[in-house]
Amino acid sequence: MRIGRVLTADGPRHVRAEGDRLVPIEDPYAAYAAGRSPADDGEAVAGELLAPAVPVVVIGVAQNGPEHHSPVQAWLKSPRTVTPSGTAVSLRRDAGTAVAEGEIAVVIGKATLGLTAHNAHEYVLGVTAVNDLSSPDRAEWDPRNFESKSGDGYTPLGPWIDTDADIDDVTLTLEIDGSIVAETDSRELPMAIRDCLAYIAAWSPLGPGDIVMTGAPHSQARVLPGQTVTVTVSGVTLVTPLV
Predict the structure, then answer these.
(1) Is residue 31 classed as helix, strand or coil in its secondary structure?
(2) Cα–Cα distance between 97 and 95 in angstroms, integer?
(3) DSSP β-bridge partners for residue 182
(4) Per-residue pLDDT tens for 189-224?
(5) DSSP state letters, 61-110
(6) What is the pTM of this model?
(7) Residue 62's pLDDT is what?
(8) Is pLDDT above 90 for 166?
(9) Which of 30, 53, 169, 232 has the highest Cβ tally under 10 A?
(10) Taking Cα atoms as reference points, which of 219, 215, 209, 178 lies closest to residue 196?
(11) What is the pLDDT of residue 61?
(12) In the 8-state DSSP scheme, what is residue 39?
């Protein structure tokens, strides 16, 4: 199932994709906690697609790319930087080089108490696409990634959560202006997604709707204003025009 959120005349609603139709559904996190798929909740609706989750916590996994030899570490990114697919993002002009990092985003389905590497998939609602926009030149002064990752709109997310994805085998493609610059998958991550989740859950609780960005396995590129970044994860395509 592909789950999203849409802004209707009555406010935001969770929906599932059925071809071109947007079918309202009940709270998918409550359904997930009950061990079932969310039930339909009304007739098809129309409206603007929003980011598919409203996280309280957004966690990035650092040093989970092939060029790193040190252990992975987690870091926090402001949930207020999350923005929907199709929304233009203004790159900072005061932070040096801008980089798009195409990543697999894991959407947590329920509280992570008891999560281990063995059972991590039992806590995941699904995966979606994320573009972890960054200003890496700031890392020289900012090892905690606060300045380098905090631009307005610097976490484009969505537009759908793929609930059928296998967290051990997720495809990832990064395109700039329609040209593919990276084709990779979760198996290229030095630390597997389930191990990342177990590491994070051992130190900090996560809950429904929270997001874990799992790292960039060869999937980053310098970007400039005027370009369009497309990240595709498990068939979910996220498009971000840059200005």
Answers:
(1) helix
(2) 7
(3) 174
(4) 989 999 999 999 999 999 999 999 999 888 999 999
(5) EET-STT--SPPEEEEE-GGGEEETT--BPPPSSSS-EEEEEEEEEEE-S
(6) 0.95
(7) 81
(8) yes
(9) 53
(10) 215
(11) 92
(12) P
Residue 160 CA to residue 237 CA, distance in Å, equals 8
d(CA 26, CA 32): 11
The two tokens of residue 116 are: 């281990």
Using only the alpha carbons of the chain, give its radius of gyration: 17
pLDDT tens profile 69-122? 657 789 999 999 999 999 999 999 998 899 999 999 999 999 999 999 999 999
Neighbours of 169 (CB within 10 A): 11
Per the document, the length of the chain is 243
Mean pLDDT of the chain: 94
Q: List CB contacts of 69: < 8 A, sequence separation 6 or more.
A: none
Cβ-proximal residues to 104 (8 Å cutoff; 6+ apart), any chain: 127, 129, 130, 170, 172, 186, 193, 213, 214, 233, 234
User: In this structure, how many other beta carbons lie within 10 angstroms of the beta carbon of residue 204?
Assistant: 12
Residue 143 tokens read as 């090892």
Complete domains list, the chain, with CATH: 2-50 (2.30.30.370), 58-241 (3.90.850.10)
CB 156 within 8 A of CB 85: yes
